[in-house]
């Protein structure tokens, strides 16, 4: 996950930063340098995520310890499970969604034969970028 996030960040930074834009145009040497920066960014993001997860897990463990109970509320567990399934279902619904735009072709004529006008559909996805926004959002949420 950190590598994908670092790669997306570097692509966005390439569009914003003139120095990175120049590196991108330099050919193979520039791509190697950008790849090296991406790996450095991966290490930094991995460290930040690791520290964040460690602190989060320590806080959860401390809250269990302060409550002096290891019991888990079944209602809360079921609610969290249902929420997770609903979120996954919503993501699948959006990912599979498409807008079908009707395309009408004019009738055509070859010699004496006249062919009727045809209609077909142009499928446009709701999320044209694919899974990249979902991956980026999930990596941001891990902070």
TrEMBL record:
Cellular-component GO terms for this entry: membrane
Keyword Transmembrane: yes
SUPFAM superfamilies hit by this protein: Preprotein translocase SecY subunit
InterPro entries (alphabetical): SecY/SEC61-alpha, SecY_dom_sf
Transmembrane region(s): 40-60, 72-94, 122-142
Pfam families, per database record: SecY
Keywords assigned by UniProt, alphabetized: Membrane, Transmembrane, Transmembrane helix
Keyword Hydrolase: no
Domain of life: Eukaryota
Gene Ontology BP terms: protein transport
Protein name: Preprotein translocase subunit SecY
Species assigned in the record: Steinernema glaseri
